């Protein structure tokens, strides 16, 4: 194993430890920004397809 592989493996382990420490408290939760983004996307697609069809 060369030095680059060892560094990548250490970085992956570091990131995995961060995710483990955070826990599952925020997993699957939608916040207001998520809902606003979905509404904006829905509006943009609806208007875009309507303009394309007409």
Give a summary of the structure in a few sentences:
This protein has 54 residues and is mainly alpha-helical. The chain has helices at 3-22, 32-53.
3D structure, described in words:
The protein has 54 residues and is an all-alpha fold. The chain has one domain. It has helices spanning 3-22, 32-53. The radius of gyration is 21 Å and the shape is elongated.
How big is the Rg? Answer: 21 Å
Q: What form results from the Cα inertia axes?
A: elongated
- Provide a count of the helices: 2
CA(first)-CA(last) distance: 61 Å
Helix-and-strand structural type: mainly alpha
Strand content: under 5%
Chain-averaged pLDDT? 88
Main beta-sheet strand count, sense and barrel state = none
Helix content: over 70%
Please write the string of helix (H) and strand (E) elements.
Answer: HH
Overall number of domains:
1
Q: Low-confidence runs (pLDDT<50, min 5 residues)?
A: none
Say what oligomer this is: single chain
Total number of beta strands: 0
Keywords: Membrane, Transmembrane, Transmembrane helix
Fold topology:
Elements: H1 3-22, H2 32-53
Transmembrane segments: 35-53
Keywords: Membrane, Transmembrane, Transmembrane helix
Features:
single chain; 54 residues; mainly alpha; 2 helices; elongated; membrane; transmembrane; transmembrane helix
């Amino acid at each position: 194993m060369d030095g680059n592989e060892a560094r990548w493996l250490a970085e992956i382990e570091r990131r995995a430890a961060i995710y483990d420490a955070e826990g599952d408290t925020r997993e699957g939760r939608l916040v207001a920004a998520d809902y606003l983004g979905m509404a904006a996307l829905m509006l943009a697609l609806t208007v875009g397809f309507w303009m394309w069809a007409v």
